[in-house]
Description:
The chain is about 60% helix and about 10% strand. It is α+β, with helices and mostly antiparallel strands. Strand 1 and strand 2 (about 25-30) form a beta hairpin.
Amino acid sequence: MKKLLLALAVAVTITACATTTSPTGRTQYVGAVSQDQLNQLGAQAFTQMKSEQRLAGGQQSSYLSCVVNALVRELPAEQRQIAWEAAVFVDDNPNAFALPGGKVGVNTGLFTVARDQHQLAAVVAHEIGHVIARHHDERITRQYGAAGALQVVGSLLGARYGEGIGNAAMQGGSIAAQAGFLLPGSRAQETEADVVGQDLMAQAGFDPRKAVDLWQNMIAAGGSRPPQWLSTHPNPESRISELQARATGLVPVYEQARAAGRRPACG
């Protein structure tokens, strides 16, 4: 891991940043780390996470893979060429993530709130949205611009997905919870991932209206304290309103996808 972090430090120091436009038209600053390096780090983080945490196999694994595959088929060509992989981790927290390099993970606890394939697709599409919108690249580049290469490398020890993963990262030196990958995104990034993800699920033949049900379930599951996965959105009611409004416009996209034969049957 030290060699990997050193290589990243060097790369951050010598790589020029670039300006690009996000899928929703927002200006982004990216390029502190090359896409190949991001993919390498994502793959290594995923491999290490799988080696350190218990995996759920069988039906849940097949179910997740079915949803991921249906969504990936609707991605741009360069994203479809990535070796996408999915895993289910035995953990009661209803969390999910996607990493550069096409790695998708969900916790078993997510199935208690994502109650059908459409709701599961809403979560997974949102996380894939972070990847295809280059949010990991953007976060690392922003960190680099604010604090320089050394703090970018230091940020790789941060955590997003709950105290368990965070403690494992700090105590065991795990690369699985790198801040460049797993720190909370900004509110703009989270909203953008909602937009990209809801559009993606409709194109894949999943009902975009079920995204609303999913978020309502997530909020209800958290009681007075929403699940950590929702913590980056300070106003859940606004989020649901936005999802409802977009769903109305995406129903024709969903119906066209179904008419074209894109009818996922994942569980």
